[in-house]
Write a structure and sequence with these properties.
The chain is α+β, with helices and mostly antiparallel strands and 331 residues long. The protein contains three helices and 13 strands; from the N terminus they run αββββααβββββββββ. A hairpin with an 8-residue loop joins β9 and β10. The radius of gyration is 46 Å and the shape is elongated. The two termini are 66 Å apart.
């Protein structure tokens, strides 16, 4: 009996030691190695997006005569994607160029008229000077009775007429100057109209504003192109991003510019590198389409992760996951 009691005592003491060890294990690990709770990263999910531009003709309406590309083709910036029949606009350009030539000729004519007006004024001044000399001589002769009063009065009238003619022709000089100003204004207007026509003619050619892939083609040759009518949708696959959402509880542990990794189910095992380029300043309710590996909460913050995509493997709409390292909050 004494041996049995001794064995029971040993077993009880052993159990007590095991229980004490279990109780002390977590505090001891925390003391020696620090807290090990919480993940070092979070994984967010979303869809790949790219800058899309809907391309259409501007300020022009005409049938499409050139449309060489189809959907899925890669084009470089400046490539001619489409062209419309521009004969009407070219003809208008020719008409306005002719009007510009006429306006320039009118300036030349107005300048000649001004030169002629100056010459007339100079002749009028010489004539007036002569009439004044004649009047002065007739006045002296009238004193001595060498001429009649009628002859003297005629000399006075001739002098006054010369003055009136000079004043008239001086006014015509002002008119000639004004005609030059109006002709120059007409030239400026005609030149501006020609420049506008040239811009309009340039609108007859649709060029790629940046390098990318033609995602959608919405027109066919022969169709009437008009302002706002979509011709192509161009995707910039060189610059794509992942739209995702971060739980409010993790917001303080992610940073703008932080390096992250991105993966897709399409290319298993392949990792893409990106950076957090945007963090929303306002929270929003969790969208129904958002799925995260972490527990969902009612409020999330939208983030944008820019991703290098030189091979154009990542396409708009493709689901993707991103692993974001968590940083200490407030640092």
């Amino acid at each position: 009996m004494a041996r049995i009691s001794r064995k029971r005592l040993v077993l009880v003491m052993l159990a007590a030691l095991i229980a004490a060890g279990l109780l002390l294990y977590r505090p001891l690990v925390h003391l020696l190695f620090g807290s090990q709770s919480g993940p070092a990263t979070i994984t967010v999910s979303g869809n790949i997006e790219a800058h899309q531009s809907v391309l259409s003709f501007n300020q022009i309406q005409a049938p499409i005569v050139f449309l060489p590309f189809d959907e899925g083709q890669y084009v470089k910036a400046g490539t001619v994607l489409a062209r419309v029949d521009d004969r009407y606009y070219l003809q208008q350009l020719q008409i306005d160029r002719a009007n510009l030539d006429v306006a320039r000729a009118q300036v030349a004519v107005a300048r000649k008229n001004l030169a002629a007006a100056y010459s007339t004024v100079a002749s009028d001044r010489y004539d007036l000077a002569q009439k004044r000399l004649d009047l002065a001589r007739d006045k002296d002769q009238l004193k001595y009775g060498a001429i009649s009063r009628q002859a003297y009065d005629q000399a006075v009238t001739a002098r006054d007429q010369a003055v009136a003619v000079l004043q008239r022709d001086q006014a015509l000089v002002g008119v000639a100057k004004e005609n030059i100003r109006l002709a120059r204004a007409s030239v400026a207007t005609s030149r501006a109209k020609v420049q506008l026509d040239q811009v309009t003619v340039s609108y007859a050619t649709l060029r790629a504003p940046f390098s990318g892939v033609l995602a959608v083609r919405e027109a066919e040759p022969g169709e009437l192109a008009a302002p706002g009518v979509a011709i192509f949708t161009l995707d910039d696959l060189d610059h794509v991003w992942l739209r995702a959402y971060v739980n409010e509880t993790n917001l303080g542990e992610v940073r703008l510019g932080e390096a992250v990794t991105v993966s897709t189910d399409t290319y298993p095992g392949k990792v893409y590198h990106g950076r957090i380029a945007f963090i929303a300043s306002q929270a929003e309710f969790t969208p129904k389409t958002v799925q995260t590996h972490a527990e969902r909460v009612s409020l999330v913050y939208r983030i944008r992760i820019d991703i290098a995509n030189p091979t154009h493997e990542l396409l708009p709409g493709m689901p993707a996951d991103s692993v974001i390292p968590l940083l200490p909050a407030g640092k």
